[in-house]
Structures are given as C-alpha cells and as structure tokens.
C-alpha cells in the first residue's frame, strides 16, 4: 500500500477502510486518471530544474496536444488543471528547507508483514543551527474542489517521519540523516496549504505499525467486491 493510501486509511471510517483495502488488493480494471506528469513538472519547478515559464508551457502543451484516445486527452486535461491550480495557489516550501530535490520511488518498508511503498515528490534538506543535517519529504495531494482533510495530512506527515526514522535506524543507506518534523509535509495543491507533520508524529507512527500488522494478519481473508469479475 502506498503512503498516500495508508494515510487515507488511517483517517477513514471502518466502512471506508474496507473499501480501501479491497481496492488495494483487487485492483480495478477500469483505468484511473493519474497526475504523474503534473506532479513531476511541479517537482521540477520547486527544485529549480525548470522556471515558471516552462511550467506554464508544459500545462499548455498538455491541454492542446492531440492524443490517441479520449481517455488520454482527459488525463492530459486533468494534469494541465493540476498545474494551473498550483500556479494560482503559489504553494510555498517550508521556510527551513535549504536544499530541494525531486524524489520518486524509495525502497519499500516492511511493517510486520505489511509492505509500505514510499514515493514522495520532493526531498527536503537543511542544516540546523547546531550544524546537524536534517531531512524531510513532501507529498503533493490534490482532489478537485475538495481540501485535504487535516487528519489525513497528519497521518501523512507521521508516516513520512516514521519511514525516514525507521530507514535511518535500519542502516541500509536509504536515509543517512535524522528527519525533521517541519520538513515532512503534505502539500494540498487545491488550497495551497502546507501541512507539516504533527507534534505527536512518533505516537501516530506506532499506531500505524499496529494497524499495519493487523492488515497483514487478515490480508488473505479480504474478499473481493460483490460481483467482481477477474
């Protein structure tokens, strides 16, 4: 399960949790609109790989280009809307971030038999006043006409901090510095709001571990949706 889906799961009702687990185990055949192009472009802009004019041009190309299918045109249109919304809101990086890089897929984390996939959009680093390097990650979250719920954002930040801390302690080389709460953020692209990890992130990640262990124990018993065709 991805970090985004897990944060949704942690904030969800029991009924919604059942739906999330089913959708993760039994992937629907219907194609789902993804925003990978928009997220990559915004990450490139925030990490200073491209300028504002190039970002705008990318959105225009997405919107005006002709593609093979109506679905591909719809995906491109949605990605262009995503970039336009970002440009309108003028999303701001955390003030303490001194180094910003595009991230991407990092190694998964095993949580008592549960596999957490972790693909942040940005890596954020800084050196604090004591000359200690710190690291964090940013996830872009976007839902048209719907602000990111505070509770989902809190779980997202806690999962980010927990992942980075656990990987550091494992000594695998994936993470080589301590995480910092202010650098573990969820960007709500729709509202332009930046949510940093909560003050009780350590406690929350312990809850995440316990919940993940429970999911792993009952994974094989999760039934497909009624009427599902395989």
Summarize the structure.
The chain has helices spanning 3-11, 14-25, 36-46, 52-64, 70-89, 150-170, 201-218, and strands spanning 99-102, 106-111, 114-118, 122-127, 133-141, 178-179, 185-188, 193-196. It has 230 residues and is of the alpha/beta class.
Describe the structure.
This protein has 230 residues and is of the alpha/beta class. The protein has two domains: 3-26 and 94-221, no CATH class; 33-90. The chain is built from seven helices and eight strands, in the order αααααβββββαβββα. The strands form two sheets. Strands 1, 4, 5, 6, 7 and 8 form a six-stranded mixed sheet that branches. A two-stranded antiparallel ribbon has the order 2-3. The longest helix has 21 residues, at 150-170. The radius of gyration is 18 Å and the shape is globular.
List strands and helices in order, with pairings.
Layout: H1 3-11, H2 14-25, H3 36-46, H4 52-64, H5 70-89, E1 99-102, E2 106-111, E3 114-118, E4 122-127, E5 133-141, H6 150-170, E6 178-179, E7 185-188, E8 193-196, H7 201-218
Parallel strand pairs: 5-6, 5-7
Antiparallel strand pairs: 1-4, 2-3, 4-5, 7-8
Helix pairs in contact: 1-2, 1-6, 3-4, 3-5, 4-5, 6-7
Structural class: alpha/beta
The rounded Rg comes to 18 Å
Number of helices: 7
Question: Proportion of β residues?
Answer: 15-25%
Largest sheet, in brief, is:
6 strands, mixed
Q: Give the integer mean of the pLDDT values.
A: 92
- Tell me how many strands there are: 8
- List the domain count as a whole number: 2
Shape: globular
Question: What's the SSE pattern?
Answer: HHHHHEEEEEHEEEH
